[in-house]
Design a protein that fits this description.
By secondary structure, this protein is mainly α. The protein has a domain of 45 residues. Helix content is 32%, strand content 0%. The longest helix has 16 residues.
Length: 68
């Protein structure tokens, strides 16, 4: 918990939007570098393919009420 507090400015949790899942300081940077290295070695750092909207189909009429 001391490391978590160190990355969150002395608090256990930072409720500010955009900050709650990020840390600051040397430990946060170390974790970020380690994660980046692991992601690259596993091939997870590649850019994602674009979103294909042409594959979308309008769903048919819902028949869920027939279950009741």
């Amino acid at each position: 918990m001391a490391r978590v507090r160190d990355m969150h400015g002395g608090r256990d949790y930072d409720a500010r939007w955009g900050q709650r899942m990020r840390g600051t300081g040397k430990y946060a940077e170390l974790i970020g570098r380690r994660f980046g290295r692991a992601a690259r070695s596993l091939g997870l750092a590649d850019e994602l393919a674009g979103l294909r909207c042409d594959l979308f189909k309008v769903p048919g009429r819902a028949r869920q009420l027939s279950l009741l």
